[in-house]
């Protein structure tokens, strides 16, 4: 990788009608976390939340009359719930920023003929095999892959291709059940259902945060990934530095990937590995990256991807401003497994540069091995003007955090 000037071309989307400050839209927001909920509400439009009962938060509960509940796994009842609400008070846009909400939002938007996540792009991104088929059809990846449903097919793939290989469920998130098989004697995972097996991509891992309008793409930031956990594949940190950029050739490849997955509008999150002159795709999504990468982007570049995407789907003209050149990092704690007998942390009175934190441990808790993203036990976000200051702040928080 080498430094280059990021694309800062202003992009605009045509609007169907002019909007005044009092011209509010009615947004159907699917499955938001409280942070996404707050961001969308702050845009000044009317918001109806559609989520599952187990995901409804206390903050969203107090919005009496504008919260709908449904099981996202049952699409007919979900569509009927949204359609009934649309007949009563019509929606102007359907929005989601979470992995499990993207597919339902795209289906509802298509069924009601409303602006929302593109259905084809969403279906391609949600299924890891479809993603590789789309990218492979444009000759953008040389890694072998196959859809498998049992260990017999996995064994045959290993016989046909060189180790190591990566095995994962086709639609899982958060590094769940991801395994690397390095040697012939490695234990095979318990495959049940639809899985993906593919060649292992060597190199350093990054993600590319993009924003698209009418098929024109802007690379907003490149995020360095820090991996750990028992498998070495769990994301335990993310860092955005202004000097971390793509070469022109790699940026062109990235935009071709976005074309292949048919992403035309909104936020993109593409995970890659780079080794020398080779770039390989890990995953791509037509939504913001998890682990609050959207907040890292905003702190480091000043670009608010969530607000831009909301305004875009509401028919407003948007532009991607030139990025600021600051640093931001998310760090997740990694603790030894076992019962918690002592814990202390600096978050009772955090420093002003701690922009977010989560602490979930209490005395007596049993810390399990970190096998996926759902076994993490809190983390924090800091920002800084340069890389040296950023590392100092991360080290200070880690030094002041003690768990035994």
Automatic annotation (TrEMBL):
Pfam families, per the entry: ATP-grasp_4, ATPgrasp_N
Domain called ATP-grasp: residue spans: 132-314
One annotated GO molecular function: ligase activity
Keywords: ATP-binding, Ligase, Nucleotide-binding
InterPro entries noted in UniProt: ATP-dep_AA_Ligase, ATP-grasp, ATP_grasp_subdomain_1, BL00235/CARNS1_N
Name the record gives this protein: ATP-grasp domain-containing protein
